[in-house]
Write a structure and sequence with these properties.
Structural class: alpha/beta
Number of strands: 13
CATH topology: Rossmann fold
Order of helices and strands: EEHEHEEEEHEEHEHEHEHHHE
CATH class: Alpha Beta
Strand order of the largest sheet: 6-7-3-9-2-10-11-12
Largest sheet: 8 strands, mixed
Strand content: 15-25%
CATH superfamily: P-loop containing nucleotide triphosphate hydrolases
Shape: globular
Distance between the termini: 4 Å
């Protein structure tokens, strides 16, 4: 495999103990919020079984091209370099892969994609604890992980599962984000979980319909309504995250 001189300063995994917590929404808007702070950001959709990043970034149906050296050129939207299995697989194709195949595709997304120089590569993981999480920890030095949860008390169990998984594979926990903060689902569960497991609490994202609408339209809310309370909260989360990460972090992908 040819060497890739991509310089990735920070690689941050975004995960959750279960599905349905808005993990991909947080990953996308976090990437955009970091970009709005002036950072160079890439977004890797590692949710192999349910890739939603192409729709949320307005890139559905597009295919990446290759450069002269055979590297994949990531698609770009809203200033973010983006790569997803959804760009390769047919929309109607059911992806049923075992561990070795997942490992291989993640390896290619990291070593055969021309990411260039990035301050942050945000990796949207599949929900739960499985092969993709393990493979990622083996393939690349991660700066750390962000765990997304919901406000309910029952979410504590799911946060515990995600925290223990990341700690078992020696990935630092950068923080917890509480999503869907509202009168309907309650509030405070994410902050309680962060305190319980001694992980920084990065912020609580309010539940509003515009988040879903903007994601479905391909223009996430941080872009479509940058002055909204939700967008400001995402920028606060990004700011809190950037303060935790050491500025000296930097490494190069160099595989052969």
């Amino acid at each position: 495999m040819a060497a890739d001189n991509s310089n990735l300063k920070n690689v941050i995994a975004v995960g959750s103990g279960k599905g349905g917590v808005g993990k991909s929404t947080v990953a996308v808007n976090l990437a955009l919020a970091l970009h709005q702070e002036g950072s160079k950001v890439g977004l890797l959709d590692a949710d192999i079984y349910g890739p939603s990043i192409p729709i949320m970034m307005g890139l559905q149906g597009q295919k990446p091209k290759f450069n002269d050296t055979g590297k994949i050129i990531p698609l770009e939207a809203h200033g973010i370099k983006t790569m997803s299995i959804g760009f390769i697989a047919d929309d109607n194709q059911a992806i049923i892969w075992r561990g070795p195949m997942i490992h291989k595709i993640l390896d290619e997304f990291l070593s055969k994609v021309e990411w260039g120089d990035l301050d942050y590569l945000i990796v949207d993981l599949p929900p739960g604890t499985g092969d993709a999480q393990l493979s990622l920890s083996q393939l690349i030095p991660l700066t750390g992980a962000v765990v997304v949860t919901t406000p309910q008390e029952v979410a504590l169990v799911d946060v515990k599962r995600a925290v223990e998984m990341f700690r078992k594979v020696k990935i630092p926990l950068l923080g917890v984000v509480e999503n869907m903060d509202s009168d309907i689902f309650g509030s405070g569960g994410g902050e309680k979980a962060a305190s319980l497991w001694q992980v920084p609490f990065l912020g609580a994202i309010p539940l509003v319909a515009d988040i879903r609408k903007s994601g479905d339209s391909g223009t996430p809310i941080v872009v479509s309504d940058s002055t909204s309370v939700v967008s400001k909260t995402f920028r606060e989360v990004a700011h809190n995250l950037s303060r935790i990460i050491p500025e000296s972090n930097s490494f190069k992908i160099n595989k052969s």
